[in-house]
Amino acid sequence: TIVLAVETSCDETAAAVIQNGNEILSNIVASQIESHKRFGGVVPEIASRHHVEEITIVIEEAMQQANVSFDDLTAIAVTEGPGLVGALLVGVNAAKALAFAHGIPLVGVHHIAGHIYANRLLTEMKFPLISLVVSGGHTEIVLMREHGSFEVIGETRDDAAGEAYDKVARTLNLPYPGGPHIDRLAHEGEPTIDLPRAWLEEGTYDFSFSGLKSAVINTLHNAEQRGEAIEPADMAASFQQSVIDVLVAKTVKAAEEYQVKQVLLAGGVAANKGLRRELEKAFASFEEMELIIPPLSLCTDNAAMIGAAGTVLYQKGKRSNYAMNANPGLDIESM
Ligand code: ATP
Ligand code: MG
Ligand code: FE
């Protein structure tokens, strides 16, 4: 199978060509970060406009680099949700137009399913598995018993991990997106500041990060009022430690409870060096469980992951019709 994949859910215009579900023939990502930076976050109107400008070029480049023609394609996969509606629409319409013009089957893909399937570009998936999904808009533990089946066993009740990183970064006057900056700063500091860990009630795999975010803001504010200086690197290290402690502990517990064969890390925050290291440490002693961590370029938004998920869905018989629409609230369990 050869699948062209398109991803425009947020601020990356991306296209990729994937062979047999796990070979990357091309993977093109046009990032808009520079355009959104001065606003401190993604501006939906600007994102849509950029997608419109970039989409044709990015798809052509992906096809060229892969050295394939539309006649070679088995299917076209596209992110149908969740994400920004105006951004999603650009990818969905481009994919629909190409599928119609060339008579190629169309497969709608859930963006988070894509993040999880980034791991299939590294290795075969073994079930049951859990995936710790940590991204700009999501923080959840997803249980998979087979290909294409997703059960959310825990999720954030307020902010996503990436969102918390970006908000804390802003209070430390770091540029958008703040995650990588906090990550870098955290390694220059010590986690000496006492911050809360939101374990929530016994037995739950849910998360909460808004209390931690508020604690950071309050601690900085109080110190400023008292004329005390807090080392930003120490605050970054303390915040990062609090996030990682909870993410790692809950992931280990879920992996044990569901007796999984694999643990897959997924989403933009999976690029975090501290999180990667601590997960590796935590799972080193579980010989029967395999921890998979994608390279940084497959953690943040890309289309290769959508192609990997799209291929599996295609093989399971999923076909989308031309009535498919961008769905900003798409539910992963309904896939
Ligand atoms: P979603 O996937 O939930 O729709 P999204 O696509 O916007 O959201 P991603 O692109 O998957 O999110 O991830 C972006 C997030 O990852 C941002 O919040 C960013 O700060 C965070 N991030 C990227 N690198 C790192 C890092 N090294 N440490 C922590 N966070 C990081
Ligand atoms: Mg992004
Ligand atoms: Fe994403």
UniProtKB/TrEMBL annotation:
Q: Which EC number applies? A: 2.3.1.234
| GO biological process annotation, one example | tRNA threonylcarbamoyladenosine modification
Family recorded in the similarity comment? Belongs to the KAE1 / TsaD family.
Class of the enzyme per the UniProt entry, highest EC level: transferase
Look up the record and name the cofactor or cofactors this protein needs.
Answer: Fe(2+)
Described purpose of this protein according to its UniProt entry: Required for the formation of a threonylcarbamoyl group on adenosine at position 37 (t(6)A37) in tRNAs that read codons beginning with adenine. Is involved in the transfer of the threonylcarbamoyl moiety of threonylcarbamoyl-AMP (TC-AMP) to the N6 group of A37, together with TsaE and TsaB. TsaD likely plays a direct catalytic role in this reaction.
Q: What is this protein called?
A: tRNA N6-adenosine threonylcarbamoyltransferase
User: Which residues are substrate-binding?
Assistant: 133-137, 166, 179, 183, 272
Protein's cellular compartments? Cytoplasm
GO CC terms for this protein?
A: cytoplasm
**Ranges for domain Gcp-like:** 23-307
- The organism is Falsibacillus albus
